[in-house]
Amino acid sequence: MNISIKPIVTEKATKITDKHGRYTFRVSPKAEKPQIKALIEDLYGVKVVKINTLIVRGKNKSRYTKTGLLRGKTSSYKKAFVTLAEGQSIDFYSNI
Asked: What pTM, to 2 d.p., does this model score?
């Protein structure tokens, strides 16, 4: 199975990284913890100690336009919190 993974770089995710040493990623909804662990270890060359996952539910959105009310929904996704071994880190900005 081919899974996709993207780092989440927000203020809240950065605070979690600084305080607890956990990195946040957006992963495919069908990805499992062993697959996520193997992919992160291969991509970034680090040792993963622990992975916590959660599913973020989509939000209902609506807006008013000339033609009336438009309603929709954002898609759901899976978020993974990755704890690395002591003394290791990931630099997301090295490829810029």
From this structure: 0.82
Please compute, for residue 19, the number of CA atoms within 13 A of its CA located in the half-sphere on the CB side: 7
Q: How far is CA 72 from CA 66, 75, 79, 95, in A?
A: 17, 10, 22, 35
Rounded to whole angstroms, what are the CA distances from 68 to 46, 60, 72, 83? 52, 17, 13, 47
- CA nearest to 13, candidates 94, 85, 57, 79: 79
Q: Is residue 93 in a domain? A: no
Q: Which domain holds residue 75?
A: 5-86
Instruction: Please list the alpha-helical segments (H only) found in 21-80.
Output: 33-44
Query: CA 18, CA 11: separation in Å to the nearest integer?
Result: 11
Domain assignment present for 91: no
pLDDT, tens digit (0-9, with 9 covering 90-100), for 30-87: 999 999 999 999 989 999 999 999 999 999 999 999 999 999 999 999 999 999 999 8
